């Protein structure tokens, strides 16, 4: 008999601030009857296990969730670079590799996960909105593509209205023009957005 319980393959963006919302979503979906396969990049897995003072081999984000009866599987895969490679120090090289090789690596693990699952059931691919590859892979494997925005709403607004901010002289950031929430149409009047200005400064400094 075919299974109808949906199976979500969740692949977070490889930064802690993006991983945590995906963990929360996975637990919420599992509590509503979904099967979850949470796929973590190995170097993030090692980073998180070290933070918990646990050997990587013994670290499982969802061990307690499974004890409560939730169907959440946890697995890791390589991003194609050795664990000792400094991704922060070599940021440009790292992201060149990610744009070039990461979609194929994701495709491989999606295929393996689907083949390992018994029976026929609906599959979902859950990924960060900031990722460029999910729609292509989901379409290839006849999956539902679920996009989760994991950053604050105003960061989405800043990115969405980037051309407007450029026209009004906020981007590239020059330190002379304060940014207010009402400078993007979806936000109300407010005091200068200090942290949003810092966000634009960071974007300018990482170009």
From TrEMBL:
Belongs to the UDP-glycosyltransferase family. It comes from the Eukaryota. Keywords: Glycosyltransferase, Transferase. It comes from Sesamum angustifolium. This is UDP-glycosyltransferase 86A1. GO terms for molecular function: quercetin 3-O-glucosyltransferase activity; quercetin 7-O-glucosyltransferase activity. PANTHER family: FLAVONOL 3-O-GLUCOSYLTRANSFERASE UGT76E12-RELATED, GLUCOSYL/GLUCURONOSYL TRANSFERASES.
